[in-house]
Amino acid sequence: MKSAPTLSRVFLEPAGNYLPEPLLELRKKKGMALVDMPLPTRKTENWKYSVRHLKLSDELAVALPSRGKEGTSLSTAGYHVVFRNGVMVPEASDFPDLDGIRIQRFCDLDDQTVAALAERLDNTLDSQTVQMARLNSARFEDGLFIQLDKEAVLDQPLFIIHEVTASSVGSAYPRIYVDAARHSQMTLVEEYISSGSEPVMVNTVTEFVLAEGARITSVRLTLEGESVQHIGATGVRQAAASRFESHCVGFGGPLRRHDLQLRLEGEGAECKLNGVVVTQGKQHYDNHTSIEHIAAHCNSEETYRNIAAGQSHAIFNGRIHIHQDAQKSNANMSNKNLLLSTGAEIDTKPELEIYADDVKCAHGATIGQLNKTSLFYLVSRGVGRREANTLLTIAFINELVEQIPVEAVREAVQFRLNDFFTQTFQEA
After folding, report:
1. Domain range enclosing 355
2. Which of 150, 237, 377, 399 is deepest in the core (most CB within 10 A)?
3. Does 1 reside within a domain?
4. Each residue of 135-172: b (16+ CB within 10 Å) or e?
5. What pTM was computed for the model?
C-alpha cells in the first residue's frame, strides 16, 4: 500500500530568530509536532476539491526576504500597518496613538505580555480541520498584537496591508492576534496584495478573542496575483453579548483557501458572516466556515455568494453546530452560486448539526445561471448583451458588496469586479 505523503522537513526550519524566547519555544514545539505530518489527500474530506492545487515543493519552504514594494493599494486616510513577506515594517506603518489601544510587533512585547501571548496563541482554531494553520504556528517570523482595553474604541478602521513580493520562490507566514476587552470596538481591514510572478505561498492566521460586549468588524480582501497560493485561517472566540461581523471578498488564483471558525461561548453572542468570491480562467477558491453555538440565546447569520466563469472552480462548505446547551439559538445560512460558463464548476455543502430542541435554524444553497428571460428583457430594450450580462451579475452580489462598512474597500472591490466583468463578458 502506498504511504500517504507527509510534510517535507525543510518546512520545519524557521529562518528568523528575532522573536522573544517564549514565542521561539512555542514555534519550536509546534514544529516538532509537525514532523511527518500527513498532507491532505483526495480522501481528506475538507480538502478533496483543493488538494490537487496544493503545491508544497521544497523550494517554497524558503522564507521570502522582508522587502517589497512601497505603499498600499487602498488609498485612504487612517491607520495602516504594513507586512512585507510576513514581517511587519514599522517605518511604513501609521499606528493610532489612543488611550486603551495597544498595537505592537511580537518582537516588541514586554516579558509579561509575551508570556501570556504564548499561552493564548492557537486557542481559536480546530487543528484537526485546519491542518495548514499548524504550519503557520511553526514558521511565523513576526506578528502583530492588538489589545483593546475595556470600553476602548478605535475611531477609524485599522488597515493591515499584507504585501508579498513574488520575485523569488518562497513563502510567508503573517500572524495577527486581537484581544478585545469588555465593550471595546474596532474595525480591522486585512488586504492581501502581491507583485512579481514567481511561485510563492502565503500561509496566514488571524485570531480574535472577544470579551463580554466587545464588537469587532473584520474585512478581508484577497487580491494577490496568479502565482500566489493563499492559505488563510481566521479563528474567533466570543464571550457573552459580543458581536463579530465578517466581510470576506476573494478573487481566485492557483489556490485560494480560507477557513473561518467561530465559537459563540457566551449567552447572547452574535455573528454575521458575508462572503463574495469570483473566479475565472482556471482559478480556484475554497471557503470553509464553521460556527459553534455553545451557549444559549446566540444568533448567527451567514450569507455567501460565488461566481465562477471560464474553467474555474469555487467551493463553499459551511457548518453550523448547535450544542446541547445552546437553547434558543437562531442560525441562518445561505449560499447562492452563479455559473457564467459551461466549463466552470461550483460545489456547495451547507451543514446543520443540531443537538438542542428549542432553536430556529435554516440553511439553503442554490446553483444556477443568468436568467435568460431577464437577459432577453434587457437586450430587447436596447441594452447591449455585455452590459446586460454585467448588470445581472452585479445584481447577484451587490447586496453583499454594499454592506461592506469601509468605503475604500467597496471602491477597491468594485474596481476589481469591473475588470472581472470586462474579461468574462468580452465576447458577449
Report:
1. 9-424
2. 237
3. no
4. bbbbbbbbbbbbbbeeebebeebbbbbbbbbbbebbbb
5. 0.96
